[in-house]
Target: Acyl-CoA thioesterase
Amino acid sequence: MTYENRFDLSLRWADMDVYRHVNNVEFFRLLEEARARLFLRSDDASEILAGGIVVASQRLDYLRPLPYRTDPVTVGLTIAAIGRSSFTLDCRVFDSGEGAEDRVYAAGSVVMVAFDEQAERPRALQPTERSWLERRSQTA
Model:
């Protein structure tokens, strides 16, 4: 799979566990940072953030240990599905650089749900949100 949304992220010393590789929980921090950059990097980010979105579920398969290093890793995100009130991001954590997608450390998905904060329940995606997602989606 090709990831048009790629974010090079630095590891922190604190990310390492007793086995001298990046702790499994820290992979979720990397995914969170990549999502934030995806939503905030464009001039029209308010279209996706105006109504409120929350993480409904996350799934991550750990494919190989990621030793601590000073070189960044790349998080690739793609919008894989758009529903009535939710969308799914496919995610990968892999090496940075040319041809690096071959060395994948973790792969998974995140389901994001449009959320009405006052009613405290899911809501339908607004037309501007759906349009924003479709412009960045491989399924559009």
